[in-house]
């Protein structure tokens, strides 16, 4: 709503402030609240290139809802005011679909409807569904004989292979819970998983650490169908370990209840059918490995097993030659060429954020989906796609059988577009953490909206057009030199270099700077120059490390803890000279924790930042100020600056003589540049319209305006273009060439002249001519004459202050 006029009464004078709609948004969002005798009006101005009309109206409605709630109950906390309408509440809190229930052994049995269909392929080895069923029956019988019972935990420590799938299938038939263990893990980690889980039985090719009975997958036996151990929905299907905040892995217990819903969700989107081939590339200790298996068995398709020593690139492409359906982390997918894998119809990414550039490469000609889900949900919680080039990459809607709500700190649902923490619930929710009651209680909390429990993901999201938009973790930002930075922006810039395959940037805790690790064929020094050409100085990594491959966790994600320690660049070492340089060098070395520092070494290139800079100055001379280090970052330069600060009293601050040409300030440069693109734009004009009713003291008004104009030179400053002085460059001895004259803007402060505020009586017919006469030539004047007042817009090459007093007759 446009604010109504506000009146001010003075002795003998009535003043009304009139609304002026200039048609220009000076800020992204601007709320203007105007008080009246018995009410207030609110006006919202917004930039249409950032917000649409519906969004702006929704923001105003929510604002009014907050005000109404506060007026209804002034004692209520602001956080208790309900922002949702009834329709929004119904839409946001809609319960999930009822999922079809199928246990894990039931899903395996359904897949074998055609016994002769090809189930597994690993190199030259091919296994049909009837053979898979027979061999899993034998192993299941052996496990039962060894003590496997429903509710017990059976470890499967077999590398990705035909045997690993048979082992999983066999454990499911026994009714026990399978525990995937990567045999390549360090022995201490394996031992912790086995001990913490309580496993007393396992399947492995060789003996592993721990007090456990190991059964070989190759042991012969009787093929006896196992049909009497059908698990209940809430029985544990698998126990999978993830990294813990304390540094010790924690086991997540996932039940059978959500598995059927997950397969139904996959089939709804991926439409896998007999004859298709699904790649099995994920580590068995990553729940994505179960995603791949269930994608294949859900459609009676073939699982193509990729060797464990293949990590990506052309080698992986060779093993994907016959694959039609593929799940990979974005990092692994980025190493492949989609043009060489045209037979792949469906690509699913997950495990980490997917860059839109990856969608541009892979989405054309096939269907591409983004899967999101914490381990504490059954493999996948939300799903998005098919994705298209140019559209935002989101995490989508909840999958079948799973609900998702976005809540604030008070566990209250937030409206569309408002960031909040994501909570998931429903059939896909895990039971909790194995043998960690307090940890489970802190993450699996009571669901105040639907009853039961919900999992607190710690992920920051928002609803946008019915889909969830992932914003990162609550601690996803880093701070460097006083600036908050999204490291993904740096990764994107580095990845633009043709010699970079992939990049990851992390904060370096010891120095508080940014360090980037890249793969590809690029010179780190060249890449640093490339980054400096795009990013501001504080975002350029202090060190860029070139790697052959990124270290990865068992889940296939980049293991940032295993990245090598960075080496910060230094110039050729020059021994510090004199007491001053040695003192500065010693302080640099102490603060940065390095052995030696040369005279020409740069503090920030060695890993320094704004915080450590303050420590340097505190040790040297606090009167220097931190700015001295930014302006003199080398040992030699700072030593000279330190000597200068100790020479005596500082000179008094006095106005110095102005140069002939005053350069533009940064703000003036910005205004000038914008004006050059659109000279007619009045975006920096500030219109004000007032109605004065009564006696106007024109002399007082003139004196007041004259004082303001005289005091503030910026009101009298123009930026004319003029040719600068010729610059000479001596190329060779005796050969002097001059550059062409260059027209540049500069400041010119014009003298303050008295304003002519003589009132003139005008009519609607003569108003335009009068304004042109006041403004002078060289201006384009646009005048609109509403019922009570005049609105004018002046554009031109000069700065003119125009005051128009429009007298309104009594009638």
Structural account:
By secondary structure, the protein is an alpha+beta fold. Helices cover 27% and strands 24% of the residues. The protein is built from 21 helices and 39 strands. Helix 14 links the parallel strand 29 and strand 30 (543-547). It is globular. 33% of the residues are buried.
Number of helices: 21
Query: How does the helix and strand content classify structurally?
Result: alpha+beta
Major β-sheet profile:
5 strands, mixed
Low-confidence stretches: 725-734, 784-811
Instruction: Summarize the amount of helix as a percent range.
Output: 25-40%
Q: Order the strands across the largest sheet as they lie in space.
A: 15-16-17-18-19
Instruction: State which percent range the strand residues make up.
Output: 15-25%
Span of the ends, CA to CA:
28 Å
The averaged pLDDT comes out at: 81
Calculate Rg over CA atoms.
36 Å
Overall geometry: globular
In total, the number of strands is 39
Helix-strand blueprint:
Layout: E1 6-10, E2 13-18, E3 29-35, E4 40-46, H1 53-72, H2 86-92, H3 104-111, E5 118-122, E6 125-128, H4 129-146, E7 153-157, H5 162-174, E8 177-180, H6 187-197, E9 201-204, E10 213-215, E11 236-242, E12 250-255, H7 259-270, E13 277-280, H8 288-297, E14 302-305, H9 313-319, E15 325-328, H10 330-333, E16 346-350, H11 356-362, E17 367-372, E18 382-384, E19 397-398, E20 402-407, E21 420-426, E22 432-433, H12 437-443, E23 444-446, E24 453-464, E25 467-473, E26 478-480, E27 483-485, H13 487-495, E28 500-508, E29 513-520, H14 524-532, E30 543-547, H15 578-592, H16 610-620, H17 626-631, H18 635-645, H19 666-677, E31 689-694, H20 698-711, E32 717-718, E33 721-723, E34 728-732, E35 735-738, E36 743-745, E37 748-749, H21 767-775, E38 779-784, E39 791-796
Parallel strand pairs: 5-14, 7-8, 7-9, 9-10, 13-14, 15-16, 16-17, 29-30
Antiparallel strand pairs: 1-2, 2-31, 3-4, 5-6, 11-12, 12-22, 17-18, 18-19, 20-21, 21-24, 23-24, 24-25, 26-27, 28-29, 32-37, 33-36, 34-35, 38-39
Helix pairs in contact: 4-5, 15-16, 15-18
